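User: quick one, fold this
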Amino acid sequence: MYKTLIFKMMKNSRFNIGLFFGKLFLMACMGMILNQRIHAQKQDSTFIYLIPEINRIEIGVGSYFPVGKMKEMLEASLQLQFWYRLELQPNSFDIGIQLHFPKSIQSLIIENNNQIYETNSQRFAGMIGFRKNYHYYFGSKGNFYFNYDTMFGYGFLTYFDVLKYHSEMNQSSSSDRKNGYTKAISTIYLGSGFTFGYKYIGVKSQIQYTPHQLFGQTFTQSIGDWSYHIGIVYKQ
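Assistant:
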């Protein structure tokens, strides 16, 4: 009698344990299915309003402001930029160009063969490179956006090649002289910025790093490395 009772209790307990784990497994499966449906709905709703806001081309115009030591050497100027999006995705790479036109405040000093020469910028500088975007859309229809980006590429600053000028001025014949005395300092370009906008228009701000003496000391004095840009962008 006792053995039969114990066997029934064990059988019932095993049945209850199996039923418990069965319910737990069923609830987990239902939760996974529900979560996938919710995630798919979120993706669909995001996809619907993000597509109109992803644009292939960005054009910008604003001001270029030297910072620190560069502020003592170069004036603020106009800065233009053009970016082309490689993929129509919220977070993607762009390829583009930025140009600015700084005028020298102080003469740039070049020393050669124990002689001192003074020169100036040719009011043409910029970068060619790539940009990585991180887009965030918000608002009831996703019309507002915030964009954070990092940039890297080739930077340059042109100046009057005073050494070539003096060398050719010493030529005996004017026919030996060549036209064009513009030379460029090559360097790397690193930048980071953000844009806040509505639909196709935005306000952009970015910091820029161009170590002009990185590949050699062209000038006897440092001309600085940092600059700042603020402007307006239009996306199309």
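User: anything notable?
Assistant: Strands lie at 57-67, 77-85, 93-100, 108-112, 115-119, 121-138, 144-160, 182-198, 201-209, 226-235.
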